Amino acid sequence: MSQYTVIFQGHLGCDPERKQTSSGQEYVDLSIAHKFNRGNENRVAIWHRCSIWSGVSNKMIDSLKKGSHVQVVGTLRNISCYLNKENEPSATNDVNILSISYVDSLRHKSEAAVEDEKLEEFPF
């Protein structure tokens, strides 16, 4: 079976929900919306149902709230197609999260890297 790696940014649609399997394994469910423009039409949201199965950082999960802007790297489990309330075709992706980070913190890191680069002397 092939695995597809996905990388996307979006906003949490609700607060993270901690759960447990019948065998006692803990995991966290997240619902993340990724919006994009569809031609000249309004912005369209693709919903991603995401799960974090291992290495759940309590500090990170506790800081995530509805509306948090995050970047996710994960593996695609399933794509579900359906008709939305307006009777238009839509889809939801099921994703196992491998890593998650705040988009704002990524910006700060990249800005810091640019500043460091300016200070670095090149030998040529």
Question: Could you explain how this protein is built, in words?
Answer:
The chain has 124 residues and is an alpha+beta fold. The chain has a single domain, classed as OB fold (Dihydrolipoamide Acetyltransferase, E2P) (Beta Barrel). 19% of the residues lie in helices and 52% in strands. The protein has a five-stranded mixed barrel. The termini are far apart. Mean pLDDT is 79; it is low at 110-124.
Please supply descriptive tags for the structure shown above.
OB fold (Dihydrolipoamide Acetyltransferase, E2P); single chain; alpha+beta; 124 residues
List the helices and strands and how they pair.
Layout: E1 4-12, E2 17-20, E3 26-37, E4 43-52, H1 58-63, E5 69-83, E6 89-102, H2 103-119
Parallel strand pairs: 4-6
Antiparallel strand pairs: 1-3, 1-5, 2-3, 3-4, 5-6
